[in-house]
Amino acid sequence: MIETKQQWFLESISKAMSKWTTHQEHQLFSYTEKIHLQDPLAVFQMTESFKGSRIFWTSPEEDVTFIGFGSALTIDTESDMNQDRFERVERKWKTIVESSYIDNPYKLPGTGPVLMGGFSFDLTKNKPLWKNFPNTLMWVPEFLVVIQGEEAYLTFNVMLKSEEQVESKIKHFENTKETISKPGTFYYHKEFSYQEKWDISPEEWKNTVLKATEQISQGKMDKVVLARELRARFNEDIPVSAVLANLLEQQGQSYVFAIESGEDCFIGATPERLVKVEDDQLLSTCLAGTAPRGDTPSEDENLGAELINDEKNLMEHQFVVNMIKEAVEASCDDVEVPSAPVLYRLRNLQHLYTPVQGKLKAGHTLLEVVKRLHPTPAMGGVPRDKALQFIYEEERLTRGWYSAPIGWMDAMRNGEFAVAIRSGLIQKDEVSLFAGCGIVKDSDPEKEFIETKIKYKPMLMALGGTS
Ligand SMILES: C=C(O[C@H]1C=CC=C(C(=O)O)[C@@H]1O)C(=O)O
């Protein structure tokens, strides 16, 4: 069996080489084969030697899981500030795909070459905390394990430049495949917990909320999302794979992700889908309006019932629905939006939830919708420009990749982006956590502050906290 697969791989790579007799700028060779199902966390641990260029992603209910490691190519938009970064990524990806050699007999969403990563919330340049996360970081992992149900696939991606390289690349592929094919189980190697944590300027944040409500009452804007930061210190480097394991166990209704860049890792469990496209069917999600979970089933029911009838939360939610509907209608036919939200229950919180669906029109793309949606009023506000201006002037926080689009897109127009909330930036033995709240005219600073505390919970629990 191994012999036959090796043969296919060799044939495939030599076909690719003969196709590229003339020099081309992008010569991506991509080869996919089925592998034995592995524990995704074990794969993540086994690929420690790729630390700094790994990406882990799983969608809610573990519908699909990706573990990417290494980098075949990175799309860099930093040098081209005059152009829109989403459009530039789109254009470059199209060029790369058109001139690539793809051997993927499965053709399932997420197999074959996949571009993964994310974007910062905004384009401001000075982000010392986020020095390892540029404003755009989208790359094609050299190796990508995709798990869908009981099936697993391994894709190898490489930029082939010359005949001489071929042999060493074949070896590299075989060795790596062997490493991740070993029967492996994830080991949770130690208990850990933060030593201290501290809020960054909580009183100032509450004053900013008050100022926002005043401006809203004066009619200067309708809604703004204000975030704050909490930092925690450990007495040793934070074990990323253990945090991932905790998030997967505790936050099954969310996208669980970890994106490494250099020595840092951006990690989290976000319930907020931005947009998903599969076979031209598009799904976006409005998630805004929050209440805690109750300690007993009846308390939980009451909190949910209160939330779904609460005017302030319904208003916060409706701003998001209006905007997402309009943005989706620009790219889709047959758009469907339910007339009222339902509850979306997470481990520590419940939200108001409205799905928005449609069929992507010919010539329209996932990234175009990402561009139009970001930031939705669940992260920015209404009107968008007024809210963003308030955020830049008053928030006193560098959002970096917090509340920004992260996700993937394959070579067949499928893909999915989430909004990176309930997240933290791990830097060796320290972590910065972020949480924000939608502020409307009746918002109470103290209540919003408590809401942010609950929004920290998923990450604090995963970082070894008890509550
Ligand atoms: C900005 C965050 O949450 C957003 C998403 C869902 C509900 C929200 C809210 O009710 O305020 C926020 O708009 C965050 O968790 O950091």
TrEMBL record:
Enzyme's top EC category: isomerase
Record-listed Mg(2+) binding positions: 316, 451
MF term (GO), any: magnesium ion binding
Cofactor: Mg(2+)
Enzyme Commission numbers on file: 5.4.4.2
Chemical reaction(s) catalysed: chorismate = isochorismate
Active site: 223, 272
Domain of life: Bacteria
Biochemical pathway: Quinol/quinone metabolism; 1,4-dihydroxy-2-naphthoate biosynthesis; 1,4-dihydroxy-2-naphthoate from chorismate: step 1/7; Quinol/quinone metabolism; menaquinone biosynthesis
A Pfam entry, by short name: Chorismate_bind
GO biological process, one term: salicylic acid biosynthetic process
Matching InterPro entries: ADC_synthase (IPR005801), Chorismate_C (IPR015890), IsoChor_synthase (IPR004561), MenF (IPR034681)
Keywords noted in UniProt: Isomerase, Magnesium, Menaquinone biosynthesis, Metal-binding
Residue span(s) of domain Chorismate-utilising enzyme C-terminal: 202-455
PANTHER family: ISOCHORISMATE SYNTHASE ENTC, ISOCHORISMATE SYNTHASE MENF
Record family assignment: Belongs to the isochorismate synthase family.
Record function comment: Catalyzes the conversion of chorismate to isochorismate.
Protein name, as recorded: Isochorismate synthase MenF
Annotated gene: menF
